[in-house]
Amino acid sequence: MNTRLANALIHVFHPVLMNLYIGLFVILTNSLTGNYFLQTLYISLVFLLGYFVLPLFTVHLIKREVSISTVLFPSKKNKVLVYLIFTLYYYATFRMMVYIGMQPIVNLTLLMLLLIFIVQLILHLVFEINFHAFFIGACMGCLLGFGYKMNLNYLYVILILLFISAWIFSAQLILKKYNLLQIYIPFLTGIFGFILLFFFYIINICLNYLAMKFFVFTAC
Q1: Which end of the chain is more exposed for a tag (fewer CB within 10 A), N or C?
Q2: Confidence class of residue 143 from pLDDT cuts 50, 70 and 90?
Q3: What percent of the chain has a predicted confidence (pLDDT) above 90?
């Protein structure tokens, strides 16, 4: 793998963009049924605005010197501000999707993505962490925890994330951005942290509520 490909992989699979990919995938796969194409298109546009366009535009308004590349790789001084802006828009988008009445699995996915970014933001106030590694680990932890609680099998999705993580971690090592410890400690922290998070009282309440809505929705 050359350095150009390594840079491209790290940009394409940045946590901000992976949030966008995951959210759009879940919305499209759970909405493209029957004759609801226009409704799905509208919801997808709302999600795209809330998860990427508006937060990026806000960052540019607040700090005009921040370009797309520095949003993906902000300096330590700007990183907290950038991620805080994105997190606030993620919360607003999540609330809007709940108001619209999206399927519970969509709301649950957006809730998990929101929680991951909140935890990343809090951790960054104390530590300088590898966001790529933590994000992928947290996603896998969410899938394992949710799969266990709901007795669902996400093996294929987890394998895809492992495949992506292998490429990203190799790219980071080639570019010498992080060493092995700086990659695998956040990765494992994300996995085990979010598995344990599913056993916390607040998360159990959210899951039970969304599960009830999900079964009512499927029964109808």
Answers
A1: C
A2: confident
A3: 1
